[in-house]
Amino acid sequence: MLADSLPWQPHDIAPKQGHIEDHIGNHTAPSGSIWRIVHPLRSTIPKALTMSDQHPDHKQQAGLPTVVDGKTIATSVPTCSPAISATIRERLVRAKQRFHANDNIAAFLEPGDLERLLDEVEGKMKGVLESLVIDTDSDHNTQNTARRVAKMYLNEVFRGRYVPQPPVTEFPNAERLNELMIVGPITVRSACSHHFCPIMGRLWIGLMPNEHSNLIGLSKYSRLAEWIMSRPQIQEEAITQIAELLMTKVSPDGLAVVMEADHFCMHWRGVKDSETKMINSVMRGSFLKDASLRREFLSLIDLKK
């Protein structure tokens, strides 16, 4: 018969419950009957499940409504946990806390967050490599690159964003020292915020303590500088952050900080000028007011070596 050879089925005017139909049009078969086309590939819509129809543990199946006593009470929606970066960001926004590239956000991290963040960064770095059209499946050199880069950023070069300030041993100025002290050169390393290219340089710190100043261990100057520099930075802001931190920790009459650095965003790319360096300084207190003290400090640090 004609009905056996066509993907058509006879229907009443209203479609039967539980079928999806494409109402392409009505067609008249030779017998004069009314036929409605039913798409042969469409599946049957699942009926609402009763509690007894569901999985034995009575958990809702994704996307299916639940019916109890003839009433639909809920429809499950597939959900997934938010990315840990989104959770951390939400905490910062709620606290109205800035989280620029060179800010420390350690106070807003909870136990286990860094491990989850490492996994997240690895996953997104894999996407970067794929977008660069690098075959990480067969290229033995890049098979674990995403993980290595994630660990490098979180545990090393940007570590200063995610860990608290290193502990600093402070000693009272029992001898009431009030003469010029200079620490340096301290090797500093960072990455520029603009291109994430390396910044490599040296730092000198000059202090004029007073009887109320706290004296800190010599190695702590290096540790504090490293903590500040282990973030995406620009040199002008980095040296200011170091100066503000030392003013808070030591409370001297005067503070001078000088930084000299090579910027690989200029050496490695762009103009590719490998000879240019950047030198800048920050002066506070007596170094700002006393020109002779400032000259003494600058004469004692050797920028030519």
Can you walk through the features of this model?
- The chain folds into 3 domains: 2-37, no CATH class; 84-161, GTP Cyclohydrolase I, Chain A, domain 1; 170-300, GTP Cyclohydrolase I, domain 2.
- 30% of the residues lie in helices and 23% in strands.
- The chain is built from 9 helices and 13 strands.
- The chain has 305 residues and is of the alpha+beta class.
- It has a 5-stranded mixed β-sheet with strand order 11-8-9-12-13, sandwiched between helices. A 3-stranded antiparallel β-sheet has the order 1-3-2, with no helix packed on it.
- The relative contact order is 0.08.
- It has helices spanning 2-5, 84-94, 113-131, 145-157, 218-229, 235-250, 264-267, 286-289, 291-300; strands spanning 8-10, 26-28, 34-37, 49-50, 65-68, 71-75, 170-172, 181-192, 198-208, 214-216, 232-233, 254-263, 278-285.
- The protein is globular and about 80 Å long.
Brief rundown of the structure:
This protein has 305 residues and is α+β, with helices and mostly antiparallel strands.
CATH architecture of the largest domain: 2-Layer Sandwich
Query: What fraction of the residues are assigned to beta strands by DSSP?
Result: 15-25%
SS-based structural class? Answer: alpha+beta
| Average pLDDT rating | 81
SSE order? HEEEEEEHHHEEEEHEHEHEHH
Biggest sheet: strands side by side, in what order?
11-8-9-12-13
Gap between N and C termini: 100 Å
At the fourth level of CATH, the homologous superfamily of the largest domain is: GTP cyclohydrolase I, C-terminal domain/NADPH-dependent 7-cyano-7-deazaguanine reductase, N-terminal domain
Just give the CATH class of the largest domain. Alpha Beta
Radius of gyration: 34 Å
* Domain unit count: 3
Largest sheet: 5 strands, mixed
Helical fraction equals: 25-40%
**Low-pLDDT stretches:** 5-63
| DSSP summary: helix tally | 9
Number of strands: 13
Which of globular, elongated, flat, extended, rod-shaped describes the shape? Answer: globular
